Amino acid sequence: MGPVPESLRPFPRRLADRLRRILIDADYTVSGVRDRLGGTAARALAREQLIPALRATGGEEGLGLLLRLWWLQEPISEKSARALLPVDELAEHGLLAAADGDVRALVHLGPWELEEGRPGYVVSDPTVRPGQGVPRPDHVVGAGGASATLSKLIVDGPFERALDLGTGCGVQALHLASRAAEVVGTDLNPRALRMAEISCALSGVEGAAMREGSLFDPVEGERFGLIVSNPPFVITPDPARYTYRESDMGGDALCAELVRRAPDHLTDGGWCQLLGNWLHVDGEDWRDRVGGWVAGTGCSGWVVQRDVQDPAEYVELWLRDSCEHGSPEYTRRYDAWLDYFEREGVEGVGFGWICLRNDGAQDAAVRVEELRHEIEQPVGPYLPGVVDGAMTAHRLTDAALLSTHVALAPGVVEERIGVPGAPDPQRIVLRQENGLHRAAQVGTVEAALAGVCDGTMPVGPLLDAIAQLIEQDPAKVREDAPDVLRSLIAEGFFRVAR
């Protein structure tokens, strides 16, 4: 798709409603596409192989035609297209082109599932596949795995105002619309803003305001109850070549800058949630690096590392993303990228999320951890409880903890591992069957406390009773228990009842 024509501003509501009805009536939805393609074709598409999907979408019925046109980017006959779609109007607004008896798509239009199963639609540039050249510098990438990760991370509303920083194709703005009365999307790429507007129109989202500019510049002086961002966090030695993935800031400075500036744009108690990359540098703990970004912001929060790639893996990932594998530039760029990481002492690149809550508290604390295993999705509904638990544990002195009423969190079970028939287990593990699915090895005291605490008695007297039962010194048990219990509260195995 070339420069966005003026006619795309705005996309007519009447046309958006008409196209939306056509898409839904044909079952061009997430479930409809999944069922029509089937597992074999879907897996082949993930490998950039189109033939199984083309075989699965043959024929002249609506869903197959829409899939070939919008999803697979294959031309369909003009006769078939006109029987199904308002071709002339969509061509006028830059979504289709008709020539030589065929109609082809100028954009990718894909279904996206919103809250409560509502159908949404996302408009972006067509996917550039191997052998088709490289993306244009202002390429607007569609919704993918990172988009899904962030959408499932967003906390529940309601909020008065929400901001999608770096909106791209607008996918997060669609999710914000169900949480906030007012939604603002920003991007420095005007083509992205126009496509985000169309995504909102086709998804039945009204009133989302799209503003052009970098970072927080378009919303200077404004505050929001919720800010989300899937920013251009890719770490590269080159000046930004693609606006959707790279910035002009070196290293992981972009994510650090977003964290630094976010509190100035949050209401009291407001949330900022973003995805990011951060460097693993020789001689430095990544937790200290990212935790340092948050220190002094007055925000409590949660930083989670979900994956780490070594330098070569990281370079290969993003060279594949820009379809440069096998190109004359591939070796040169690969070499230069590794040279850069070597000079900077980079041993790996982490990927994950940063969630901040503007508590405005001097003792605000952020929990920084790594979670590589599968966790319950979506995260958003229980995320505030994760931050609350970490903050509560951080604020509890030993004395306060002993006088606190705690209860075992819902969904926590106990596992005892040992030799069959032995009087005592070798290990006792508390495991969460929901939420973050954490596991924690505990001692006899903590296991006994988990079995009896129900929020009706303070921790201190319960520990005294447990000490007598296991024939240990109560004073020693009271002295040793708080540090372990504080960690178990922070990780969600116990909750403070009052």
From TrEMBL:
One of its GO terms (molecular function) is methyltransferase activity. The keyword Protein biosynthesis does not apply. Residues 152-273 form the Methyltransferase small domain. Keywords: Methyltransferase, S-adenosyl-L-methionine, Transferase. The keyword Nucleus does not apply. Pfam families: DUF7059, MTS. Residues 26-105 form the DUF7059 domain. GO terms for biological process: methylation. CDD domains: AdoMet_MTases (cd02440). Belongs to the eukaryotic/archaeal PrmC-related family. This is Methyltransferase. It comes from Nocardiopsis endophytica.
